[in-house]
Amino acid sequence: MTGKNLVLALATLSTGLVAGVYYGFSVAVNPAFARLPDAQYIRAMQEINDAIQNPFFAASFFGAPLLLVLATGLHAGRPRGRQLGLVLAATLVFWVGSLGVTVGGNIPLNEQLARYAPGATASAAAVRQQFVPPWNRWHRVRTGASVVALALLLSACLLPDAATKQA
Question: Which residues span the membrane (predicted)?
Fold first, then answer.
């Protein structure tokens, strides 16, 4: 295995881990949380937003975009082929649709929710109503983008390496 293919494999793995977290949240956590009363929902989201800030998630969350850029750079040498196009597309989709949406959409909403304390002047129902629709909308975008980026990377991994074809 070449160094550039190892980096591609690591980029694919880290992107898959991020996509998996988002997908799992979409199909299990969000539906379960939808059943909770307002104050419990807010508390549960606050706890998740606190717990997810850990080295294991950080490794994939920050590793994926960095490895994607590195993989793109390594695949940009000659000869250029379909692998480069797929890796570049995955990188752009992930940076904009996953990382960009998370940083620009979900995290500010999470920070806003973190400031809510039970017994505050705002009711839990009002806080939840302000939080849930935009947060879920951004979450669907980042989940879709992460899954698309993963599919593009898997496609790139399945293509024969241009250097291998010439040998």
Answer: 55-74, 86-107
Neighbour-count burial of 25, counting CB atoms closer than 10 A to its CB (0-12 exposed, 13-18 middle, 19+ buried) = middle
pLDDT at 77: 81
- Which pLDDT value is given to residue 165? 55
Q: What is the three-state SS of the chain?
A: CCHHHHHHHHHHHHHHHHHHHHHHHHHHHHHHHHCCCHHHHHHHHHHHHHHCCCHHHHHHHHHHHHHHHHHHHHHCCCCCCHHHHHHHHHHHHHHHHHHHHHHHHHHHHHHHHHCCCCCCCCCHHHHHHHHHHHHHHHHHHHHHHHHHHHHHHHHHHHCCCHHHHHC
pLDDT (tens digit, 9 = 90+) per residue, 65-111?
A: 999 999 999 999 866 789 999 999 999 999 999 999 999 999 999 99
13-22, 112-121, 148-157 — which is least confidently predicted? 112-121
Where are the chain's structural domains?
Answer: 3-162
Task: Tell me: cis bond preceding 118? Omega within 30 of 0 counts.
Answer: no
